[in-house]
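Before the break, one more example. Copy the sequence into your notebook; we will annotate it together after we see the structure.
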Amino acid sequence: MIVYRILCSVIFMLLLFSGIGCAAPATGISKIGYAIQIGAFAEVKNAERLTAKLQEKGIEAFYFKKENGLYAVRFGDFSRRDDARTAAKKLVSDRIITSYFIAPPQKTVKESLPPPKNSLEPVVTTVKADNMGYIAARTAERFVGIPYRWGGNTVVDGMDCSGFTRAVYNLCGVNIPRTSLEQFKIGQNINKDELIDGDLVFFGNSESQITHVGIYVGDNRFVHAPKRGDDIKISPINGNGFAKRFIGAKRYF
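Here is what the structure looks like once it is written out:
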């Protein structure tokens, strides 16, 4: 009887603690490891050209604008720095790239804030990695004005918008699914009046027909890639026909 009671207690404690405390990552979401970054291009077309070249080789690369105004190309998700370096050296030997930088997993981001009164110097603060919404929104805003072409002419229409959101989250150290429909199927459901920085907002005809996605950046605005070849821009959720097509929002952290 004593053994039976002990067994029951053990089983009860296992069931109790299996449901709290150590939640597993949401399905379809993972952290980005080491990545390969190339270039400091003054012209976005040069970054776009290199991205297209890598994608022709089956490499899921994307380009982005850095804080200093130059453009770079990034790809890869390696668990070890040595693995990333080995892959980069192979591309160098194949004469696909000439130089590279190994980007470590995302931990913190330094953000420049407006200078206080009576000061000409901006205030630089460190944003904690767990505030991923803020980081994602500010990263998305850096893409505004870029004529983003995810995959050039090698992908079907409608991939640019989800490719953009995927690229932003990649830079923030988070790997999300490729298509807007796949992105909509995961994450926490968020009501429109609960939106915060970094949430993904989805548009379409129904939950099974998602046609567009963007990143919420506050004040009822979102950053998105409207259509192939068009510049990435900020639009109001309640304007330009988006209000009628709004399907829902998701939060991944």
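Helices lie at 2-18, 44-56, 81-93, 132-141, 159-171, 180-184, 242-245. The two ends are 46 Å apart (CA to CA). Try to locate both features in your own notes.
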